[in-house]
Here is the input.
Amino acid sequence: MLICTFLFCTAPLLRCQAKIMTYYNGDADGDNIISIMDVTTIQRLLKNLCDDTYGLIEIRADVDQKGLNTSDAVAIQRYLAKLGNPYRIGSEANRIVKSDNELPEIEA
Here is the structure.
């Protein structure tokens, strides 16, 4: 995917690469399987027992889109126990991830 940006019509065309990350909603550990290990990964991250340098665990595990917390782990446990799935856990999701050379967003 190519995103082009113009700056004030006098600047040259700047090209920035953005990557699209595809994952399964709730797949915290990134193994493409929703399991109890995803719940464990969330719990370990919340207790600072593992590292999420690039924020990928949080992206994949934040099923309610309210920030990663214990509610996400509980929602995944409920999904595994077949007690409902209001957050589309297990469905494929996409997210645009900025690359290193992308310009920061500028507020007007």
User: Anything to note?
Assistant: Residues 1-11 have pLDDT under 50 and may be disordered. Helices lie at 36-46, 56-61, 70-80. Residues 22-95 form a domain with the Type 1 dockerin domain fold (CATH 1.10.1330).
